[in-house]
Amino acid sequence: MAIIVVILAVSLACTYAQEGPPPAAPVTVGPNGETLITAPLPDLVCRTDVASRCVFPFRFNGVLHQECAPWVWGGENEGRHWCSLITDNDNNHINEPGNYHFCDCCSNVRCGCPCRCQTTTDAPPKACVFPFRFNGVLHQECAPWVWGGDNQGRHWCSTNTDSNNNHINEPGNWGFCNCWISERCGCPSRCGNGWCQ
Fold first, then answer.
1. So which domain of life are we looking at (predicted)?
2. Does a structural domain hold residue 48?
3. Which helix (H) or strand (E) holds 17?
């Protein structure tokens, strides 16, 4: 019985052994006489928040990234991660408008970035801000909705706080949490009545 080592020719250098006849792929002989077959990695992709496909690896400012890179330029995107959508033949990110986007970190662990709790009532969703203080209580995760009505049982978070972590209680500064996407929200994940809480 022949053992064949398959090399995945992508950003991750993985090998595995396979029994049986070699598949139809380029074949070479390794240093120990083993048969080496180049094969593509299955389509495990990281997508952006607008469903574009990230390109890995990508090089930016001399650093080769195998997963989404932290946004380090501050502003409202602080804490987010981004990826290249277009690279040249040497994997260099082509730094032009529209050639990058922010990663959808909650959709796929292949993105390599943390899944953040976000709101569901905004388009696009806003990131929850933790901790936030509301009515004297400091919340480290989404807070239960306690005002009754159709939203009873759901959870909400602040999306805007002052320098003392106090929720700024104005329209647009809060939203219901996306509990079905992220376990980091701190609320139960169960669906019913057409929405998840």
1. Eukaryota
2. no
3. strand 15-19
